[in-house]
Automatic annotation (TrEMBL):
Taxonomy of the source species: Bacteria, Bacillati, Bacillota, Bacilli, Bacillales
Record NCBIfam families: menC_lowGC_arch
GO-annotated biological processes: menaquinone biosynthetic process
Short name of one Pfam family: MR_MLE_C
Organism: Ferroacidibacillus organovorans
Name used for this protein in its record: o-succinylbenzoate synthase
Length: 373
């Protein structure tokens, strides 16, 4: 497969309701859609999961745009991609460029998608995934008060979501979690702190052991594993790392020192499917539970996340909620919907191109740049 052209589109999709985390408020999903066209007429899409501001990680849509246009697309567009191994090795072609993983993932995934499209093979199959159905959880943002919170949780539980993740921050943590636990004694429940605490909070965090949480996601600094290992030694509740794991090497070190017992794998955060596969395989070897995270993706990124989750190492429900959880209108049609409550189908889709709604893609585009090889 030979690339003919790559284009970048910045999109802005309004969110149904603002998403509040310990790092800020997002009222729209702004991202970059990367489109790869091949010499033989194949087409592939990728979505950059960076945000508008460098609050979750250091990347933004503006930095990703620069990296893609000036470095990553030029480095990848003249190579031939003729096997799954060639796709898996894309990460090696970008390895000398430091970090900027969300930008790397966006073009890498678009090339995998174009290959799926050209070879009429589902991405899940190219990745080695075998599952056809996956359980799905919900990520609930910080709420204005406990009554609203309980009402929201009840609504999502009635929809069938397989677990509830609550965003927490100092001042909105133990009490909301306790109230949810009281109302839903047996429900799989977890918390995501997005780096809002430090090791000095250990006594406060130890109290959460009484709540029977599945895990606490990324309690400490985004770039830390040492303090997480110290904290994990004090807690009965498993720690799950998100922000701290940007590569298979990060994971090796984290597991070696006991910084986590569970991994949230986001393909955007780690630089693409190639690195995600390396992390998946290492988790499986080590018998570490893993699940697929989300970044409020449009249907384009969402379908990629669902395809990845077909791999056997994804042992826990992921943050791959149906499109309607976030958007009135998605960039794909039909939208991602439940097969039955709490379960998504890994559809035998040869790339996402056949699902992309061109009219909506145009409607929500706020900036276009064509990069031709
Ligand atoms: O930390 O997992 C996170 C959304 C944006 C940025 C970071 C995170 C999240 C979520 C929502 O938790 C996941 C989703 O439903 O897409
Ligand atoms: Mg997280």
């Amino acid at each position: 497969m030979q690339i003919a052209s790559v284009s970048l589109q910045r999109v802005r999709l309004p969110l149904k309701e603002p998403f509040v985390t310990s790092f800020g408020i997002e009222d729209a999903r702004e991202g970059i859609i990367v489109t790869v066209r091949t010499v033989r007429g194949g087409i592939g899409y990728g979505e950059c999961v960076a945000s508008m501001e460098p609050l979750y990680s250091e990347e933004t849509n503006a930095t990703a745009w620069h990296m893609l246009r000036d470095f990553f697309i030029p480095a990848l567009q003249s190579h031939a991609y003729n096997s799954v191994q060639d796709l898996r090795d894309i990460r090696l072609k970008l390895a000398h460029f430091k970090r900027n993983k969300m930008a790397k993932a966006a073009i890498e995934m678009a090339i995998w998608d174009a290959y799926a499209n050209e070879s009429a093979t589902p991405i899940a199959t190219l990745l080695g995934g075998t599952r056809t159905e996956i359980p799905v959880g919900i990520s609930i943002g910080i709420q204005p008060n406990l009554d609203t919170l309980i009402e929201r949780v009840g609504y999502y539980v009635s929809q069938g979501f397989a677990r509830v993740k609550l965003k927490v921050r100092p001042g909105f943590d133990f009490e909301p979690l306790r109230v949810i636990r009281e109302s839903f004694p047996d429900m799989p429940l977890m918390a995501d702190a997005n780096s809002a605490y430090c090791l000095k909070d250990v006594r406060h965090l130890k109290k959460w052991d009484a709540l029977n949480l599945m895990m606490i996601e990324q309690p400490l600094a985004h770039d830390d594993i040492m303090d997480h290992a110290k904290l994990q030694a004090e807690l009965a509740t498993p720690i799950c790392l998100d922000e701290s794991i940007n590569s298979a090497e990060d994971l090796r070190k984290a597991l070696e020192i006991g910084a986590c017992r569970i991994v949230n794998l986001k393909v955007g955060r780690v630089g693409g499917f190639g690195e995600a596969l390396a992390i998946h395989d290492r988790c499986r070897e080590a018998g570490v539970d893993m699940w697929c995270g989300g970044m409020l993706e449009s249907g384009i990124g969402r379908l990629h996340n669902v395809a990845l989750t077909a791999l056997p190492g994804f042992t826990l429900p992921g943050d791959t909620a149906p499109s309607a959880r976030y958007f009135e209108e998605d960039l794909i049609q039909p939208a991602v919907t439940f097969l039955r409550p709490g379960v998504l189908a890994v559809e035998p889709l040869s790339g996402v191109a056949s699902r992309v709604d061109q009219e909506r893609l145009e409607k929500y585009t706020i900036q276009v740049a064509e990069v031709v090889s």
